[in-house]
User: Fold ornithine decarboxylase from Streptomyces pactum.
Amino acid sequence: MTEDVSAPLAAALAATTEDRLVYDLAGIERRYDTLRRELPGVRVRFAMKACPVDEVLTALARRGAGVDAASPGEVAQALRAGVPAGRVHYGNTVKSDRNIADAHRLGIRTFATDSPQDVAALAVHAPGARVFCRVATGGTGAVWGLSHKFGCPPGDAVHVMERAREAGLVPAGLSVHVGSQQMTGEAWHAALEDLGGTLRALGRRGIRVDHVNLGGGLPALGYRDRHGTPLDPPLDKIFAVIREGAAELRRIHGAPLDFVIEPGRHLVADHGAIRAHVARLTERRGADGEPRYWLYLSCGKFNGLYEMDALQYRLVFPGHTDGPRVPAVVAGPTCDSDDAYCHEEALVPVPAALASGDPVWVLSSGAYATSYTTLGFNGFAPLPYAWAGRPEGDAADG
Ligand SMILES: Cc1ncc(COP(=O)(O)O)c(C=O)c1O
Assistant:
């Protein structure tokens, strides 16, 4: 399943004469509504790290979403944008004493955890808080596995929750993250099975959690992999596996069990695109003596396309629909060799007539673009952002 750029997004990109990240807010809202229909009864806590833009947070909050926040800074922004504190949880297992105390002071009462040390700190700095323990996953099938830094094995999760109970915290839930841009239903199935086993073990110890947090990992639909092959995630199957798995967990639990999910890229990636321009199309000989084309764009790894070493984005070259194409390595504008699509052998066919200054649209680049941008590495400033369906002047500094 892939998506072409929406008409409002295309119109806004065409109308933009300067480099910008353009979001289609209505598209993000539609994606949210579809997700709610596909997973009835599952509450959405938007992983705001994927797009920490006030208007997006406010629009999703108006539709009933909450936020998965990873720091006191994100908590504060979500609250400012109108997300009620009761719908914000602290989803990062990594936090200092000060982070916990600050978030608690801001009204946060639900925290992720995965270790006895973190539980002990929560008991001191967020006394009585609700905690959910992250169960580790293997990350197989995902573009970004997220498998080492977070979570504990199911057996350890049971001990962590016992420690939480002893420390006066509320052992409220379990969570997983199947890895970002998860491409298989099987990974969800395996994670849900682990959750089932953990719920059973908790039940034997008299711990009855009230919710399961399914984490992130739902895919964007418009990416290509590092070699340029379209990523075609089996979204319908993934939804079916989640629905069936949730029903099975409720059966195992034998008591009311709520579900939340923390989509990041799934909600925003395909509804944001960058209007960039061509810095230069060059041809020069490489170390192997072979001539090679390089297409240098005005945006790259350090100003909007941080994930360009793991993905290829679909590029549109307005005004160059016909004419010969040449195979090129695509790279960003900085003086850093990491600022390029990583596979030199996966060349992208680009119009041979491209000239410096020509517009380029980088599609499905709405996730992790504003957040993973440097302050101005090599003097290339963060991209301002604008909104499809509004006048071009309505841009904010990113
Ligand atoms: C705890 C947590 N939840 C959700 C997400 C969002 O993941 P994704 O963008 O794959 O949906 C992340 C991303 O790193 C995360 O760390």
Residues 47, 49-50, 68, 91, 177, 180, 215-218, 262-266 surround pyridoxal-5'-phosphate (CB under 6 Å). Residues 75 and 145 are 25 Å apart (CA to CA). The chain has a mean pLDDT of 95.
